[in-house]
Write a sequence for this structure.
């Protein structure tokens, strides 16, 4: 598996609009096991995107999907910055689909 | 929903041992929708725990479960520090169980 945690800071006042764009079309990405968008409780402009993919290549391929490229284009003007990005090797746990989880 | 992202730094050399403890018993926590433990690809002692709960109260109640208290007790000597902790309001996405996800 391959994972990403990213904090995206929206232009002030645009967090929910950016969130809606990020949530569109997330069901059709091959190899995507998890894609969750969350508001930061303490930082009013910050969103966190948590992604888990079957393979790193699946994530890279998703960036070429028309729906994803369209969302990136529409979301870009609402983004003030990428505040944090962590690459993960997800090991296991509860709640993920697939044989490695409980 | 209620979410948490936390980075835990293990005592050097003890990351995998700490990971195994964190993964034990994660299937039996009421209200837990997701609990994933991941290795940080770039920081050799760092683990990331990503949690999503139906309600904040479910997370708080989990800390009193015997299996969780036991794991906390066994894991504590392997922890060098809690490097980051972010509280989340998860909004939606793909891969979560329940009616709010795609």
């Amino acid at each position: 598996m391959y994972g990403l945690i990213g904090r995206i800071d929206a232009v002030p006042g645009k967090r929910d609009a950016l969130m809606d764009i990020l949530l569109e079309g997330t069901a059709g990405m091959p190899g995507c096991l998890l894609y969750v968008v969350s508001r930061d409780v303490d930082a009013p402009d910050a969103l966190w995107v948590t992604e888990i993919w079957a393979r790193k290549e699946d994530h890279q391929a998703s960036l070429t999907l028309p729906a994803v490229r369209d969302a990136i284009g529409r979301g870009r003007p609402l983004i003030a910055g990428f505040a944090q990005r962590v690459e993960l090797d997800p090991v296991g746990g509860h709640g993920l689909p697939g044989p490695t989880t409980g």
In short: The first helix of chain A runs from residue 15 to 23. The first strand of chain A starts at residue 2 and ends at 10. Chain A touches chain B through 35 residues (CB under 8 Å).
